[in-house]
Amino acid sequence: MSLQTIEQYIAEQLPNVTTLDHFGYRFFFYETDQVLPFTTIAASDNEYDKISNLDRDGVFRVNIGVSKDTYNKLFADIKTGWDYTELNRFMPHPDYAAQYFICVLNPEGEQLVKTIKFIEEAHLVAKNRFDRKQSAKMRKPE
User: Fold this and answer.
1) May I ask the CATH class of domain 2-139?
2) Cβ contact 77:85 at 8 Å
3) Per-residue DSSP letter, 46
4) Weakest-pLDDT range from 37-46, 47-56, 73-82, 121-130
5) How confident is the model at residue 26 (pLDDT cuts 50, 70, 90)?
6) d(Cα 26, Cα 67) in Å, to the nearest integer?
7) Where is the DUF6194 domain (predicted)?
8) pLDDT at position 24
9) Which of 26, 46, 106, 139 sits at 20 to 30 Å (Cα–Cα) from 2?
């Protein structure tokens, strides 16, 4: 199952990852930065998010915070008309597209391979953001 593949990959292959489970989501953060996850996995609908009909048996959505460049390459020509219940298709996140989040329901085959690559990129984006924050803290006079 691709859900187990994704969670196992993050746990075993990406360093310095912390997780938090809340509202039916599993949030993946870099280090102690618990503000913006680099990836989330939603396995059920909740009162804030029902757009993907995740209460269907076995359906889950992976949300990934990619770079602006990657986001723009993926969706340069397509701006509207998304069916957020469609399986195995990359789409702009229904709520966090402005923060360059993409999503995919139940990725399989080539889409699963791409999902892992996008998660790797998101992890690097989160690491760079964390490192910048740490550097800024160190430069700040007390």
Assistant:
1) alpha beta
2) no
3) B
4) 73-82
5) very high
6) 21
7) 1-134
8) 85
9) 46
